[in-house]
Write a structure and sequence with these properties.
Chain lengths: ~400, ~280
């Protein structure tokens, strides 16, 4: 469903929607943000409901000289105007943060473009590789097809370890990348640590058991009681000790039925005596003494065998990932700016009142007015305590 | 003294804090309020200590992992974050009545995790898929987001109660912050929660890409977290673009929190890769 044409169409439409809405509103915001000389209207500040007022006994010029450096430290833009009976110090900061919301929407556009690129130019498939074998292509579902790779993936070894409780601890595949017959790259992969090569990503996804093909057999002599250990590969005849003929391992069964009764995992084999007669033998893994009753001088049983696995790998390619990741970063930064940084404006109006001065501290912000109120209170308290010597 | 004991004690401390906050709301005695705050602080400290102890204990058991990997651990962490975020708000807005609507959520989460017989508090070895540093970033940011939305939910409920009493007759409601402040706080909490949910979804996505080969797979958890994200994005757009405020925003905030609950609990009943939080 998510790779279908109509889903891709929806993503394109959503992208267009965001682009159009952004362009529609951007010109107004840009005019506000790119202003060279910000306008300040004193009466607007005076009409603010949350202004702070206090009286200071120093002269207006003294106060202006003390306040200006203090305000410059906290606000990027400062301008002092002389009024009829005093001074007005105007300051503002973070006007540019009004553009934050466009950053957020641009980031969404990046995400959508990344998704479209991945959808058109990427793939997501699976392959099972038995230990020791190489594959050159993978299977993709939705739509069902085979995707060939530019290189071969060889599974040298697969290993699974468990905790004491039986739950899986780690799945590990040792992989080699083979190009034109030569190994070019080797890596062990586990879940959470994939192999990345030429834009293709190979992930440890699952695994499964395979019929074992190499077995260590016990040949127990009925006459002498001696036990001989011999390695055997499926399909390869080996000599039976004490001149007992030849034995060949034939097949492996997960659940073998002996005369109708299931006896679990077993191998079958053919024992050919020196005189040419042969007998079919069942080597039960669960019941090692299964063959004791059979005819012949040797009792054959399985001593041990190496469990063989196939590794289940997920193989993907997504050229759009970097668009998506840059979208992610921009989204986080954009949200932070949009929510928690506001365009703040400050006005400190100093008016001569006889020998003293009446000071008004006023501020506005386009977001979080409650926070701005608190900031004005704190600025006002600091201004009251500001002494001449604080110019250091 | 092991982590399970400490966390069980924390449950009762949170319960006691919730009772004190509710008593303060009803009886208005300042002493009750101060005791409530201190109880909540002690609860948060014990909660944090319990989590750290649990982390250390997992080392001695041979399968070290951050205590964020299953339902029990995530609920315990959720209680911690909601209490801390609430205490910060209490300090900034200087109103303890909000505590009566938020600390009970912390208590209920801890109680559910600790007392439910189906939820095991045994430290278990971690599945291969969760063995990553992304686990910490992803789970923590998601839960900070969820806590903010839970508090927004509590505040929205308070707003709706306060709105009903337009004549100021109820003495219970008189002690609430005024409606404008509740609305503003709802907005702040939703923005904070939205930022953290965004970071949570993003860290999850980057982690999924490095572990599973795709940054978005539309599994139930991913889909429902996106639905939750869209609901809160709608709240923000409605407020900022359409000037919605007050009652309509409060209802949307409550709807968003229901989506949060489904994203957290509900998806565990659906099949998928994300069932780590299931029982």
């Amino acid at each position: 469903m998510y790779h279908s044409y109509w889903f891709q169409m929806l993503i394109v439409l959503l992208t267009l929607n965001i682009v159009v809405c952004s362009i529609d509103r951007l010109s107004t915001t840009w005019k506000i943000v790119s202003i060279k000389k910000p306008p300040f209207i004193l009466s607007r500040f005076k009409n603010n409901g949350d202004n702070e007022y206090f009286v200071d006994s120093r002269s207006a010029e003294q106060l202006k000289d003390i306040y200006e450096p203090f305000v410059s430290k906290g606000f990027g833009y400062i301008r002092t105007e002389q009024t009829d009976n005093g001074y007005s110090i105007f300051a503002e900061k973070w006007r540019w943060t009004r553009m934050g919301v466009y950053g957020v929407h641009l980031s969404i556009i990046l995400l959508l473009i990344g998704a479209l690129i991945g959808s058109f130019f990427g793939f997501d498939g699976y392959v099972n590789i038995p230990e020791g074998e190489v594959v050159n292509s993978i299977t993709i579902h939705n739509p069902e097809r085979t995707q060939s790779l530019d290189f071969g993936i060889k599974c040298e070894d697969f290993n699974v370890t468990f905790y004491d409780s039986g739950t899986p601890k780690e799945f590990r595949s040792s992989l080699t990348i083979i190009e034109q017959g030569k190994p070019v790259y080797k890596k062990d992969i586990v879940v959470n640590d994939p192999l990345r090569y030429k834009g293709i990503n190979i992930f440890q996804s699952s695994y499964g058991p395979l019929p074992p093909n190499e077995v260590t057999l016990n040949f127990t002599s009925k006459k002498t009681g001696e036990v001989y250990k011999k390695k055997a590969l499926v399909g390869q005849p080996i000599d039976v000790p004490e001149d007992g003929g030849k034995f060949i391992l034939k097949d492996y069964f997960n659940s073998y039925k002996f005369r109708g009764q299931p006896i679990g995992e077993a191998f079958t084999g053919i024992l050919t005596h020196k005189d040419g007669s042969s007998a079919g033998i069942v080597l039960s893994l669960r019941f090692p003494d299964f063959n004791r009753m059979q005819k012949g001088d040797m009792v054959v049983s399985v001593a041990e065998y190496a469990q063989r696995y196939y590794t289940g790998l997920q193989v993907t390619k997504d050229p759009g990932v970097w668009f998506v990741y840059s979208g992610f970063i921009l989204l986080i930064v954009g949200c932070y700016i949009t929510f928690f940084m506001s365009h703040q404006r400050l006005c400190i109006n100093i008016e001569k009142k006889g020998k003293k001065c009446s000071v008004m501290v006023s501020g506005t912000a386009n977001k979080n007015k409650f926070g701005m109120q608190n900031k004005i209170k704190r600025i006002s308290e600091k201004l009251i305590d500001l002494k001449q010597s604080s110019l250091t | 003294m092991n982590s399970s004991l400490v966390l069980s004690i924390t449950t009762f401390i949170y319960g006691f804090a919730a009772i004190l906050y509710i008593a303060f709301w009803i009886f208005k005695k300042p002493l009750l309020g101060r005791l409530a705050t201190w109880t909540a602080i002690i609860g948060a400290v014990c909660n944090l200590a319990g989590l750290i102890m649990r982390w250390v204990e997992s080392y001695s058991l041979g399968f070290a992992h951050a205590p964020l990997s299953n339902l029990y651990e995530s609920m315990v962490f959720f209680s911690l974050t909601i209490t801390i975020v609430y205490l910060v708000i209490e300090r900034k807005y200087k109103n303890r009545v909000i505590g009566a609507f938020t600390t009970p959520i912390a208590f209920l989460a801890m109680a559910y995790a600790s007392l439910n017989p189906n939820i095991s508090d045994r430290i278990q070895p971690i599945l291969p898929a969760l063995k990553s540093n992304w686990l910490i970033a992803h789970v923590m940011t998601c839960f900070v987001g969820y806590s903010a939305f839970a508090i927004a939910f509590g505040i929205s409920c308070m707003y709706l109660f306060k709105q009903k009493d337009t004549e100021g007759k109820s003495s219970l409601l008189a002690h609430f912050p005024n409606a404008r402040v509740l609305d503003e706080l709802n907005h702040q909490m939703i923005m904070f929660g939205f930022l953290f949910l965004t970071i949570g979804i993003i860290t999850g996505s980057v982690w999924a890409n490095s572990a599973w080969g795709r940054y978005w797979g539309w599994d139930p958890k991913e889909t429902w977290s996106l639905i939750t994200w869209f609901i809160y994005a709608t709240v923000l757009h409605a407020r900022m673009m359409r000037g919605w405020s007050g009652k309509r925003i409060a209802y949307l905030s409550i709807l968003g929190f229901i989506a949060v609950l489904f994203t957290y609990f509900g998806v565990n009943y659906l099949p998928g890769l994300h069932s780590y939080g299931s029982l």
